[in-house]
Amino acid sequence: MTSAQKDALFVLVKSLSKSEKRQFKLYVGRLGVNTDAKFLALFNLLDKMRSYDEQVILESGIVKKSQLSNLKAHLYKQILVSLRLNPVNQNIRVQIREQLDFATILYQKGLYKQSLKILDKVKAIAIENEEKNIAYEIVELEKVIETQYITRSIPDRADELARQAKELSAHNVMTSKLSNLSLQLYGMMLKVGYVRSDEDYQRVKRYFDAHLPEYRLEDLGFREKLWLYKAHLWYSFLVQDFLSCYKYSSKWVDLFDEHKDMISLHPVFYLKGNHYLLESLFYVKYSSQFRYVLEKLEKKTRSSEFPQNDNIRSLSFLYINLNRLNLHFMEGTFEQGLQWVKPIEAGIMEHRERIDEHHVMIFYYKIACLYFGVGKNKECITYLKKIINNKNLKMREDLMCFARVLSLVAHYEAGMDYHLEVQLKSTYKFLLKMNDLHAVQKEMIKFLRGLGDIYPQDLKNEFRKLHAELKKYEDHPYEKRAFLYLDIISWLESHLENKPVGQIIKEKARVLIR
User: 152 or 78: whose pLDDT is higher?
Assistant: First the structure.
């Protein structure tokens, strides 16, 4: 039996707003014959259901089991057609596609002149809005029609269409190469995170250099520049060059500021660009600029001209709240950060169908760090368990590794060290299996393993030794990544100075503030 979480039709029905449901019923009722249609009865039944249950559908008598699959497919298609007709979903890309469809119908009826007139107008709109893939399709259809519909200007027309096809093809090939490179680098980032060694660095650099196409920046359009900056950004993240991350994410956002009309056409790219700019600012500890960019993004997403749909709302929730938490980490205001825990958990439930598991786990890790920062270690452990016990998480191996290391420290801080030896062995094995056992983690595990043999009066001295050892790695090109996930240095300093870890980070933030 199909589960509620996996049944695509049920998920689609539940995602519809009241106005979208009303429009669907009006769309179905445009012909009286549809009012008793089986697919409408199935829609009404699914709308009332709290969770998907195939047995309830079969017992309703709407459809036989052998026909259910076909009826569901038909209903799914009808809902999509209805949504396509909704003015909310009528963006420029849909409108261009619609005009291309109209022109194709006119061509098939032999009304060549009318078809060419539509194509000429919609081609200009497509090029103006950087929809070069569709523009290329339009030119190709124009070429087909021109070979069948003889006009007096055919010689000049042929040259013009050939030139346009060549230019658009070149732009699309460049876009494809840059988008492929960007996607591959993003995949590497999700799978293993930052580079861990010189060998990793050289492998990523070779891949980047080999796949980055030759280009002249002045020849690139909006979309090609966007993919170029994305590719450079992901490369910079992988090799932990955070100043370059700041440089290319700034270029990404500036590109939208230069082409403000593109924000409404590509709101997802606009949101992502701002998110990566904020992430870069977080890593270079530029807190005043971070706060400015975050406030600007929040204001923009609340404005009436910013597009709104389910996807945009989910991404806005994701990026704004991840960066709200990051601001509290930068400034050491962990106690204030706890105010966002309940709203974030409610948002995760609301947007669960549109937020991937990887980002949910990042939320849990950041919430765990908040609780760790205020000394609520049992709550910290609760959230870390959500990550450690997640058997479906196949992305970001480094996140899983550091969740286990933080769990060890939180168990020690909470006085729950009666099973610490078992946990140490388990964590050690996991890190070895993931090939993620590095100097910082080795020193942490060695320290925690030796705690049982240390007299209380010697404890501060051992903290001091570990602090001196870990300080060596704070600016190490590969080992420093450990401190991006867990500020072990500040935790040790809190023990040495008998201050809360939040206060230590706050004092550092005042020194670094720009």
Answer: 78
Q: What are the pLDDT digits (tens) for 222-257?
A: 999 999 999 999 999 999 899 999 999 999 999 999
Contact 132, 175 (CB under 8 A): yes
| d(C-alpha 301, C-alpha 314), whole Å | 12
Q: What is the pLDDT of residues 129-150, one digit of tens each?
A: 889 999 999 999 998 888 776 5
Quick check: 83 and 89 in contact, CB under 8 A? Answer: yes
Closest CA to 134 of 166, 102, 94, 107: 94
Q: Long-range contact list for 382-387, CB < 8 A, 24+ apart?
A: 384/410, 386/361, 387/361
Tokens 């009808």, residue? 78
Q: For 139-173, b where at least 16 C-beta lie within 10 A, e where not — what string?
A: bebbeebbeeeeeeeeeeeeeeeeebbeebeebbe
CA–CA separation, 488 vs 447, rounded Å? 12
Instruction: Report how far Cα 190 is from the mean position of its chain's Cα atoms.
Output: 10
Report the C-alpha gap between 193 and 187 in whole angstroms: 9
3-state DSSP percent of the chain in helix, strand and coil, to 5: 80, 0, 20
Angle of CA points 298, 299, 301, to nearest 5°: 65
Question: Could you give the CA distance from residue 4 to residue 160 in angstroms, rounded to a whole number?
Answer: 54
Distance CA 252, CA 274 (A): 8
- C-alpha R_g of the chain: 28
Which residues, other chains included, contact 286 with Cβ-Cβ below 8 Å and sequence gap of 6+? 246, 514
C-alpha span between 265 and 307 (Å, rounded): 9
DSSP assignment of 468-512 equals: HHHHTTTT-TTGGGHHHH--HHHHHHHHHHT--HHHHHHHHHHHH
Helix axes 439-449, 397-413, angle to 10 degrees: 30
